Every structure is written in structure tokens, then in C-alpha cells.
Amino acid sequence: MRAWVSAFAATTALAALAAPAEAGFTELPANVRTFMAAYTAWGDNPRDVDAYLNLFVSDGSARLWDSGLQQPIDTPAGIRAQIEGVNRLVPDYRFVPEEVTASPDGKVAFVEARNTGTVNGQAVSFRTTHRLIFGEREPARVQDGRRSWDQVELFEPVADAQHPLPGLFEGITSSPGDPRPGVELPTAVRQLLWQREKSEALVAGHSGTASLSGPGLTAPITGRTSLTAYLDRFFGKVNDLRLEPGVTVRSGATTYQEWLGTATAHGGGDARPIPFAMVERTGPQRWSLQFDTLDLVASRETVKVLRARIFG
Fold first, then answer.
1. According to the UniProt entry, where is the signal peptide (predicted)?
2. Are 58 and 138 contacting, i.e. CB atoms less than 8 angstroms apart?
3. 53-107, pLDDT tens digit by residue?
4. Worst-scoring range by mean pLDDT, 166-175, 243-252, 272-281?
């Protein structure tokens, strides 16, 4: 993973273009518009596996990273098996891109999407963030893709008292805001603050009236006290964060920062090393985080049992 980070370090600090899905992607680079048309069409009919495979470069060299994977899926057969598994698990699965931000050269995009369906008789709806690097020879197809999301949202329907998935951020609600502006934090400083578990300093990088969206929150929260409590709760379940900046894309005052590395998770009191990835979106009044909390709230045994219940 560290080699992958180094290979794409030069893509950081790109200016970017952004478009909501309802805008028809008209402000995006041409190759990204072409890709998003195909991506959206597939999302309307996810059982079209060939259409999904056509989203990736055709020479078989594409890689697909996902929450919970130790290594990427790097063969066409593996990518096919992955989406076929999703269709078996969630026969009514639907995928709707909602926001797209791309570098002006069209080499990189971040897509935020809504995923819906039914698991174990219960409706599920969760948001995913996709970091996409497009092919040099096929710029409207993905060379390297990473999906960041919270697996707890998928596993909750099969959890029970013996194998629970406690709400890591349960009870955290908004607190009063304040007029103080945020302090600009360069990428290297944010990296250090994440690794040293400095909640208050990370929150200070945002306006006192900014909102935070993240795993475990049904709605954005506001107020520095609440935002700090959220990060404190996070750092209470994960430590030894060793993160390196991956891809960065900027659009006006909004920045998407990918963080890649390792951590020690403490889910179920069962400490163990895990690969860890996070996407951080920052802006003047909006801060959002996307990461997986499954290993932060569940023991290895619980994760194993719940995976068996879902995937057989």
C-alpha cells in the first residue's frame, strides 16, 4: 500500500471541478462525463455485470480496493465475482451517484453515492465515497478505484445480542456553535494531528459553525464540543494510526483528501492491526469523514460470524 501511495503522491494539490448528479455532470471534464453517464446507467441496473466490468480499463490491469479488504481485487474475474456477490446478497440493490468532484485534467475523481436495497428482510441505505483514477489509454474507464464506506450499515441487519454492533457514536448530538473562524491546517499538519489523536486541534481547523457528517451519524452535527466528542469517541477505539496522504482533489474551497495506512482497532476489546483508509472532505462550513467502523466496534469473532451470516 505504501508503494501505491508514493506512486500517486504527485496527484495531490490539484484544482478541480465539481458537479451534483442532477446537473448532468456538464461542468466535468469530457472523459469524466462519459464515465459518469455509464456509471449512472449501471447504477439503475446493477445486475448488468458486463456493464459494470466495462467501467474498468479493458486490458485487465484495473485494481479495486474496498473496506475490509487486505489486498485489492486485481483481476477481471475477481471484479466480476465481487459485483455478482453484491447482487446475490442484495437482489434489489440500486446505486445512485449524488456528487462528483474531478481534477481539471480528468485523471482523478471522487464520487459520493447513495446505495439502497434489502438485506435479511431489512431495508438498508448507506453512502459510499469512491476515489477513481482513470486509465491513461482509456480515460473514461477506471484504472484504480477505492470505495470507502462503513460496513456496519450492511451488517446491522444480521447482528444480535451475542454478536452485537454497538453504535460507536450513539448519543452525540449538536452543541452550540461559536463565531470563531477555523485555523488553516496544511496537509502535513493534519496528518500529524490524526496520527497523534488531537481531536481539538483537528476541530479547530474548521469554523465554529461548520457541520460534520460521518459514520454513525443520521444527520450532520454542529458545535465544536460535539465535533470534538465525535473524534474522541473515534480515537477511543482506534490508535497507532499511521496514515499517509493519498490523492487530493480541490474544488474551490472544498478539498477531498484520501488517507491510507494502518491502525490498531479495539472492537469488542479485541485489539488487532488493520489496514485503514479514510476520505476527508473539508470546506468552509462542511466537514465530512468516510471510514469503516466494523473493526472498531466488533471483535474478530463477531466479524467472522456476521460475514458468514451474510455471505455464507
1. 1-18
2. yes
3. 999 999 999 999 999 888 999 999 999 999 999 999 999 999 999 999 999 899 9
4. 243-252
Residue 167, amino acid:
G
Topology of domain 16-158, CATH: Nuclear Transport Factor 2; Chain: A, (3.10.450)
Q: For cell 463477531, name the residue.
A: 302
Give the pLDDT confidence score for residue 11 in this predicted structure.
32
171: left (phi over 0), alpha (psi -120 to 50) or beta: left
**Amino acid at residue number 134:** F
Whether residue 235 is predicted with pLDDT greater than 90 in this model: the reply is yes
Q: What is the largest CA-CA distance in the chain?
A: 54
C-beta of residue 19 within 8 angstroms of C-beta of residue 25: yes
